[in-house]
Specification:
Layout lengths: L11 H10 L1 H9 L3 H19 L3 H9 L3 H37 L11 H8 L8 H28 L5
């Protein structure tokens, strides 16, 4: 699996989890299918960040000044590793929203009376010719929510990333 191309795979376990436990389990199952995969994703991300940060000039200068490794990790390496983690997490949340809406639209997600934007889109698709706004608003809600999470992640990264200050 390549970084940035994490697409959920839906198999019999996902459908069985939905039948047994409901939509919350489906969302968790699609996003956190394999805990080792999730931990591996973040471990590779942090490892790559740390490997690139430890070669920076300010880390070499800190070592030359005699600063101990725990202080270097806490004050210099950790703040520079947070930005990619935040972006990856917010993209994962946005992906989960799209997956849930897609499953509901296809009839594999939530069922009425549980509210879902995907189900709203599916229910109003028959009226698309006569009243297009019925399908437009759930689609816009999905779009705005996903865009909001992505922009929130970018803004949080910009606020917390010491390289941008």
């Amino acid at each position: 699996m390549e970084f940035g191309c994490h697409l959920p795979v839906f198999g019999p376990q996902t459908l069985q989890a939905y039948r047994d436990h409901g939509v919350g389990t489906v969302i968790l199952d699609t996003r956190y299918r394999d805990l080792a995969d999730l931990v591996g994703l973040y471990a590779r991300l942090v490892r790559g960040s740390v490997l690139s940060i430890k070669e920076k000039e300010y880390i070499v200068a800190c070592r030359a000044l005699g600063v101990r490794d725990p202080w270097i990790l806490l004050l210099h390496v950790l703040p520079n590793c947070l930005a990619p983690i935040i972006v990856t997490t917010t993209l994962g949340i946005a992906t989960s929203i799209i997956v849930e809406a897609t499953l509901s639209f296809l009839g594999l997600g939530t069922q009425p009376p549980t509210p879902s934007w995907g189900w709203d889109l599916k229910a109003n698709i028959a009226y698309l010719q006569t009243t297009p706004w019925l399908a437009l608003f759930p689609g816009l809600a999905i779009f705005v929510t996903v865009l909001g999470f992505n922009l929130f992640g970018d803004g949080l990264r910009d606020a917390l990333d010491p390289r941008l200050k």
